[in-house]
Write the structure tokens for this entry.
Amino acid sequence: MVHLSVVLGALGPVFALILLGLGLRRSGFPGDDFWPAAERLTYFLLFPALLLHRLALARLDQYAVGPVLGVIVGMLLAMSALLYLLRPWLRVNGPAFTSVYQGVIRFNSYVGLAVVLAVLPPAGGVVAALVMAIMIPLINVLCVLVLSMHAGGTATLGGVTRGLMRNPLILACLAGIALSLSGVGLPWGTAALLEVLARAALPLGLLAVGAGLHLEGLRRPGLLVAASALKLLGLPLLAALLCALLGAGALETAVLISFAALPGASTAYILARQMGGDAPLIAAIVTVETALALVTLPLVLTGVVAGLAA
């Protein structure tokens, strides 16, 4: 399968960096204090620089935002409904259910953008940034609502809104879209500066992903497998169906399915700790999903690349 070999070759550096980050953290190098600082640097500066650079210089009028928005909203709401239907079968309490929910709904944006840039055409990076601009606010609102209802966490509409408007990834996406649509672009040499910062975002971000994996607490294997199957296989299938029904373009479909097939993100662990969720369970889910994605993501992307080529 030529497409599988191409995908595996493109994804090799992505997963190698994740495993390198895990190995460095387990070996104690360069020290436990380094990784939280690296995550903050990537989250607040490098990754926003990458998104701003991609969006500000893009021709956004070339992309159909309507179908992309419809697929994302439909996908998240349909999977949310399915998880509630499956809750009696899962046999979990409220905090554990919120962790399963976050494990299925959230995605790792660092891995996602690295995968799209490695496997899809260059324009895929712009579509990925648009997808993130829509998905990140919606996912955060849904997760906060679920945690508030089932884990005893408290959140107000104003608090959620303020949190979203301080999110550096959302702010970077909105600024990039505004600069692109206004025709201003990136003046005064800022494009070159942002490009240099953007080059460091994905390597450091992927190392931090690996360093954040938890090898302890992998109990309840049945629950971990169920959540991982819904996330890594069920969500991409749902995204593909909605893309076909809503008439999304080939590149938009490829990006949406790619993001749907991503493992969960460590931000779910932080939110679970803040709002009373089952933090050890979500840490285990994210770890298992990331490990299984070594197998499932190349298979999903092989179909995506084949479809895009056709």
User: Anything to note?
Assistant: The radius of gyration is 19 Å. The chain is about 80% helix and 0% strand. The mean pLDDT is 87. Residues 26-305 form a domain with the Na+/H+ antiporter like fold fold (CATH 1.20.1530).
